[in-house]
Amino acid sequence: MIKLKINNLEVQAEEGWTILQTAKFYGLEIPTLCYNEGLSVYGGCRLCLVEIGEPPKTKIVSSCTYPVQEGLVVHTDTKRVIEARRMMIELMLAVAPNSKTIQDLASKFGVKQVRFKIRNEECILCGLCVRMCREQMDGRAIGFQYRGYKRKISTPFDIRSEECRLCGGCIYICPACQLRCQGPQPDTAICNACLTLDPSCLDYYDELQCWMYDAGRCGTCVQEKKESTAREESVSKT
To answer: Burial, 24: exposed, middle or buried (Cβ in 10 Å; 0-12, 13-18, 19+)?
Structure first.
């Protein structure tokens, strides 16, 4: 067994496990989008970023691809990690603003603006459909083409593949194929209809303080502390 620390908790992991697998085993939530337990890991969406190492020498890695190591120190929700995840959500929103999955992620992480040009390409290149077709449906009908800004997913020669059985597996797993929920119709690329309160403990402690997330996600612990301090000061003045 490999011993490591996640969020200051001493944990153990099996040889060959990734940080994400270890965190999930202990009930610690790390957001993912291109990851699926039934498919090979890809590490393309970068939502599962975590911070490893001890200050000042820390770095950001994708938890779904990074293997656990003896003595590894991991933090899943530092301010640096949260800001990186918010940036990735902004980028994905600019590409596929009509995805309910990505809109929900924006609300969950408090993303309130999109600072990039809206492209409406409806494909974030997460590779889920490619892996689903190849690994689960044994179709191999679609794949990646080109590189850089020209990169896309399509069939060979952009014509209907003879390998495609119209099973719909690619559409089923695609996070960008979902339409926006039947709620407010915003003029901008971001909805925020389901916006949750920001975790205010990030500003105080530089890291979430509740690893079960009920309090840490909404910031009630810091808010209650501030209100209690305000009440004590008010009483002392009177």
So the answer is: middle
CA 171 to chain centre: 20
Helical H segments across 128-212, by residue range: 128-131, 169-173, 201-205
**CA nearest neighbour of 83 among 104, 60, 103:** 60
Residue type, 138: D
Residue with tokens 């599962």, as numbered in its chain: 48
Domain boundaries, the chain: 128-173, 198-238
Give residue 74's identity as a one-letter amino acid code.
V
Q: What is the CATH number of domain 128-173?
A: 3.30.70.20
Please say if the pLDDT value at position 198 is more than 50: yes
Q: pLDDT tens-digit profile of 218-227?
A: 444 555 555 5
- pLDDT tens per residue across span 118-135: 988 889 999 999 999 999
Are residues 104 and 178 in contact, defined by beta-carbon separation less than 8 angstroms? no
